């Protein structure tokens, strides 16, 4: 039991370590040497009545969560701005309207005060409803928008019982604001509905999801987090807004970008491809809501006047969380296909999604990767002259074969008649 508790604590500690590290900008040559603002973190704990369950090796979920919180507080760097918010912690009645407003910030975001934070957590008792959507929205307000890295760590044992607002919708709204806010989620013995909701929340904001249900699953997840912590921080995409046509599209250099696309929408971007360069581009769209089966995503390179140069297509049937495709196009061998100005190359991202639920804003998160390299040296294809020569040779060979076949047929018929 002790080993399992420690493993659960380690899982949350590793998430907190990723929170404190933050993420790097989209391009390596633009990484700042010093951070202007320290990272701001809000820990959000579910204290609803279900947290009384004693199903983690005989210990209650709330007791394990409290111990994990204490260890997280001890492990956070001094520079971290920490806040703590709870949900379902004060109202134990049956009035759902009242219970679904039950979320409070018990520690304001600021320099880590370990004693105050631990004392605030120690008095918590499982009580009421589970207003996750409202708690996320309030947590984002708690963190403010100072330009620093902002992360929310949500720990819950169940899905939201107070929709609206729906937690997934809230997460998409927060991501669509274009601010550096990420939500990491951790489910305590989650069922399938809870897992899907927590995955939706974390996916919409670029965060991570972890679960604590069995010792084997917990060990595997911890190993994944350890491996991730040992790797360099992931590239942070630069936020960009695609246009409705190529003439208004933003000019993009090599790098990684993030945008959001509505169902059935086309998003346009431009890339300056010089003669002798090869454009390599890929796009990934996170499927953060339920979609009708059989859908696809298209990435296309075209000229300013709409002439298609190359395309990449990927299709799905509802089993994947992300849909991706890519393309390559070399300006060195097809310079006549683009205008004299290099900005004539347009990238178009479109989709064939359909949904039974609301298909409006905010759109689905997409990540666009662009690279420009020296054009690949590929063997030359036969020219027009050599192609005509080949046709002439084939025609002559066919004529000769036809004459021989006719002569042999006449000889065979004559011989058969004589016999």
Automatic annotation (TrEMBL):
Signal sequence coordinates: 1-28
SMART domains registered for this protein in UniProt: VWA
Q: Which residues form the VWFA domain?
A: 40-229
**Does the keyword section mention tRNA processing?**
no
Q: Which Gene3D superfamilies match?
A: von Willebrand factor, type A domain
Q: Which Pfam families match?
A: VWA_2 (PF13519)
Q: Does the keyword Hydrolase apply?
A: no
The regions listed as transmembrane in this protein's record are 388-413
What are the UniProt keywords, alphabetically? Membrane, Signal, Transmembrane, Transmembrane helix
Q: Which PANTHER family match?
A: CALCIUM-ACTIVATED CHLORIDE CHANNEL REGULATOR, ZINC FINGER (C3HC4-TYPE RING FINGER) FAMILY PROTEIN
Q: What is this protein called?
A: VWFA domain-containing protein
